[in-house]
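Collaborator request, handled under Task 6.
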Amino acid sequence: MSGNERKESTNMSYVIGLRAVEHLLSLNDIKIRKLYVEYHPVNKRIQSLIHEVRRRNIDISEANRGRLTQICGVSNHQGIVAVIKRKSFIDESSLRTFIETRLSKKNTSPIFILILDGIQDPHNLGACLRTANACGVDVVITSKRDSVSLNPTVSKVSSGGSESLLFSSVKNIEKVLEWLSDYGVVLIGTSDSVEDNLFDSDLCRPLAFVMGSEDKGLRKTTKNRCDEIVSLPMSGTVSSLNVSVATGICLYEALRQRTSTKRKS
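C-alpha cells returned to the collaborator:
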C-alpha cells in the first residue's frame, strides 16, 4: 500500500457493494472521494454506475479482486469500493450537543434513539443500521467495549444506510444512559423474561431503545438504567429472536405508533 493510500485509509471510510455505492450517489451530503472498480466489469449496473461517477468527475481506479480486497480489508466487495469522508460519525461531546439541540426543537416528532450495547457481528450491526435509517432514528449509539465498529461489511449490509445515519461510539454506555435519563428521554430495554409487552408501551415519547448483545442480551448494569423492560410476544416454539430482528420489530412498532398519532392529529 502506498503512502497516499495509507493516509487515505486513516482519514476516510470504505463503502463496498453495488447497492451501497448506488445509495451513496443518491445522497447530496455524502461525497465519494474515489472509486475503485474491478477490471472490465460485465455487470451492467456497475457499468452504469461508472458512467455516472465519471460524469461527476470522481476519480476512478481499476484493480483486480485481490487488490480490492487489500484496499478495503474484506473480500465481499462485489468488485466495487468507494472511498468517502464519513461525516455521520460523532464523538460523545458532539453527541450530547446534538441531543440537547434536538430536544430543544419545537413542533417536531419526539427524539428517537437506538442504543446497541455489545453487538459483535457486523452483519447484525449493519442490519440494525439499515432498519434504523428506514424508521427515522435520529442517532445510533454503540459501546466501544466488546462491540464491532463501523467497517465495510457493516456499510454493505446496511445498503448504504449507515452513511446517512448519525452514529456515535462511546466508552461508557451507562454514563450516556444516565444523562439521557436526566434529559427526560425514556430508556426502554428488551428481555424475554418479563411480562410487559412491547405493544402496550407508549412509544410516542422521547425514547431510546436499548438492545443488548447477541448471546447475553442486556448487561445487568445497562438493564438497571432502563426505565422500562419489555418483551416481544412469542406465539411459536422459539424462545428468542436475533438481535437485528428484535431491533427491527421495536423500531417499526415505534414508527407505527408515531405515524398513527400524526394521522389522528
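The cover message to the collaborator said: "The longest strand covers residues 32-38. The two ends are 58 Å apart (CA to CA). Please let us know whether this matches your experimental observations."
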